[in-house]
Design a protein that fits this description.
The model has no long low-confidence stretch (mean pLDDT 94). The chain has helices at 34-49, 92-99, 101-110, 126-133, 160-168, 170-179, 185-190, 200-215, 219-232, 237-251, 255-266; strands spanning 10-15, 18-23, 55-60, 64-66, 115-119, 122-124, 136-140, 144-146, 183-184, 196-198. By secondary structure, it is an alpha/beta fold.
Length: 275
């Protein structure tokens, strides 16, 4: 994977084991286009197999993180329709959600590397769900999270109805979705929706500290732990325990496991490699 800009509207760089994906449409409040979405899906898939990448930071330029999907940009190519056919037929919207927003959220959840959302401003709609799909969320104290869908007369997409109850409980999830009110970063931290709400002056340093720490960790073990934790709320105890045992089996064959044991024996600092 090239460690440079992928386009002017979506930037990607890789340095010291940290991949940074940056939405770069500040003039459009970083509303995400289909092209950006598809490129992010590709990037997060590629990160899983790229040994140069040990952690990922998802962020944006400007004063907004992502205000949702850009509704001004056509989402699906129009096929030629038979004469007299309606402009939109049953199944078009649902198919578009599956191929678009849901694929993006799955790409973040399924990425084998830990992903930090560095939320620099408003995160609304799919923008909020992109952040919630990340493994850790750090937000500047001026950021807001908005389940904006009810304001448009539609239901949540991009995994919102799946993610929110698992993060904050059923009743709080209903409150957020039914009213669609702005949720401050400080309140999001209070209810456990994000990890940290920090002042603007401390934002970059906090994100960089976490990203650096993860980039020095046992990458394969962290990826397996992510897999276990993401599946835990959908598994019964028997399945969860079986998966835990197999994850430990896989982790025990990595170089970093051997390094962890040897460094303990030799009473020295551990030097993980990421494989």
């Amino acid at each position: 994977m090239a460690d440079d800009a992928t386009s002017e509207e979506l930037l990607c760089s890789i340095e010291n084991g940290i991949a940074r994906v940056t939405l770069n449409r500040p003039q459009a409040a970083n509303a995400v286009t289909p092209d950006q979405r598809n490129k992010m899906i590709e990037l997060f898939s590629d990160f899983s197999s790229d040994l140069n990448v040990r952690t990922v930071v998802l962020t944006a330029n400007g004063k907004h993180f992502c205000t949702g999907a850009d509704l001004r940009v056509s989402k699906v190519p129009e096929n030629k329709r038979p004469e007299g056919a309606p402009e939109r037929s049953t199944g078009d919207i649902g198919r578009n959600i599956k191929r678009g927003a849901q694929r993006l959220i799955n790409a973040i959840l399924d990425c084998e590397k830990p992903v930090i959302a560095a939320v620099n401003g408003t995160a609304a709609g799919i923008g909020a769900h992109m952040a919630f799909a990340c493994d850790l969320v750090v937000a500047v104290d001026s950021a807001k999270f908005i389940e904006v869908f009810v304001r448009r007369g539609i239901t949540p997409d991009g995994g919102g109805a799946y993610l929110l109850p698992r993060m904050v409980g059923l009743h709080k999830a209903k409150e957020l979705v039914f009213f669609g009110d702005d949720l401050s970063a400080s309140d999001a931290e209070r209810i456990g929706l994000i990890n940290k709400c920090v002042a603007a002056a401390d934002f970059d340093a906090t994100v960089n500290e976490w990203a650096h720490k993860l980039s020095q960790g046992p990458t394969k073990a962290i990826g397996l732990a992510k897999w276990l934790l993401n599946r835990s709320l959908d598994s019964d105890r028997g399945a969860a325990f079986d998966e835990e045992a197999w994850a430990q089996e896989l982790a025990s064959h990595t170089h970093d496991f051997q390094e962890g044991v040897q460094s303990f024996i030799e009473r020295r600092e551990t030097r993980f490699q990421g494989w």
